[in-house]
Amino acid sequence: MQSLGRGGCSYRLPLWSLLSGRVFPRCSATKVFVGGLSYDTNEIVLRDAFQQLGDIIEAKVVCDHVSGKSKGYGFIRFDSETAAAEALKKMDGQLLDGRNIRVQYPKRQNGRHS
C-alpha cells in the first residue's frame, strides 16, 4: 500500500491501483468535521446553519448507539471542495445553538477516516 496526501486528505492505494492508474480516495476535501455541538443540535439545524455556503450532500450528527443522544459532533459533506473550504473559513468559532463550534477537516483515527 502507498499513502499519498492531498488537501488534508490521504489516499491509501494498493499497488495494483498504482499500476492500473486508478486512484480510489478514502475521503475527500468535501467533508468537514463539526465539533462542540450542543447536545440538542440535530441534523436539520446543522444543515440549515451550513446551507448558505454551498450544496450539502449529507449532514450527520453522531449519536450514541445505545442512548440515541448526540455525542456533540457531526460531519457535513459538501458537493464541492470550495464549499467545504468556505465552511472552514466562515463557520469555525461561530455560535450555533448557544455553543461555539469547531470546523475542520476530519482527522484519521484508528486506521480509518472520521
From TrEMBL:
Residues 30-108 form the RRM domain. Keywords: RNA-binding. Pfam families: RRM_1 (PF00076). It comes from the Eukaryota. InterPro entries: Nucleotide-bd_a/b_plait_sf, RBD_domain_sf, RRM_dom, SLIRP/GR-RBP-like. The keyword Flavoprotein does not apply. One of its GO terms (molecular function) is RNA binding. This is RRM domain-containing protein. It comes from Trapa incisa. The lineage of its organism: Eukaryota, Viridiplantae, Streptophyta, Embryophyta, Tracheophyta.
